[in-house]
Write a structure and sequence with these properties.
With 195 residues, the protein is α+β, with helices and mostly antiparallel strands. Helix content is 40%, strand content 27%. The protein has 4 helices and 7 strands.
């Protein structure tokens, strides 16, 4: 009985010490990780509107329980782009991205920030440059994913349709939100706004 108590107390002591070490490591590395993530996001925002002098977060929005933010990019006093963070449900993860639109609510660019899609399949959303490039210049009404070649809409990547849909849906959600927030203040595409 004494032997069992001794073993139990030894194991508890080991687990307590290990737990304290893990808390210490988290406490030390968390600010570093936070700063690195913040810097990475700032650099990504600048890529979305390189002509901007200042990019300012102006609000928050959400899809279900997921919360995102949106920004105004200005050159001098003129707004040159609106940028929103968004995500779409992929095959094995949410695909987190930035979407920028110009004053006419046309997509200026899409940048994937984070994903855990299947290597060799779903990760083609970032490997195949043409996929994200095809969003440029599109109005909301053109953000429809098709499996066949198209210039008017968005062509899915063969073998990565679910991941392609995740990106397209995330872009549509962000553009829809920006239209709702700024539709009265900026020129909206005349083709209508349907989801």
């Amino acid at each position: 009985m004494k032997e069992m108590l001794k073993i139990t107390l030894s194991l508890v002591a080991i687990f307590v010490v290990a737990g304290m070490i893990m808390v210490g490591v988290f406490y030390v590395t968390s600010p570093v990780r936070f700063k690195a993530e913040k810097k990475e996001k700032e650099e990504a925002l600048k890529k979305m509107a390189p002509e901007a002098d200042v990019i300012t977060e102006v609000g928050k929005w959400n899809i279900g329980r997921k919360h995102y933010d949106y920004h105004e990019a200005k050159s001098g006093r003129r707004i040159v782009a609106y940028i929103a963070t968004t995500a779409g449900k992929g095959y094995s993860s949410y695909v987190k991205m930035l979407v920028s639109v110009d004053r006419d609510i046309r997509v200026k660019g899409v940048q994937v920030l984070d994903h855990a899609e299947t290597p060799g399949l779903g990760d083609q959303i970032i490997e195949e440059e043409w996929f994200l490039e095809q969003f440029k210049g599109k109005e909301f009404s053109q953000l429809a994913l098709l499996k066949k070649p198209t210039k008017e809409n968005i062509q899915a990547i063969s073998g990565a349709t679910i991941s392609s849909r995740a990106v397209t849906n995330g872009v549509k959600d962000a553009v829809q939100m920006l239209i709702e927030r700024y539709g009265g203040g900026i020129k909206v595409a005349t083709h209508g706004v349907k989801k």
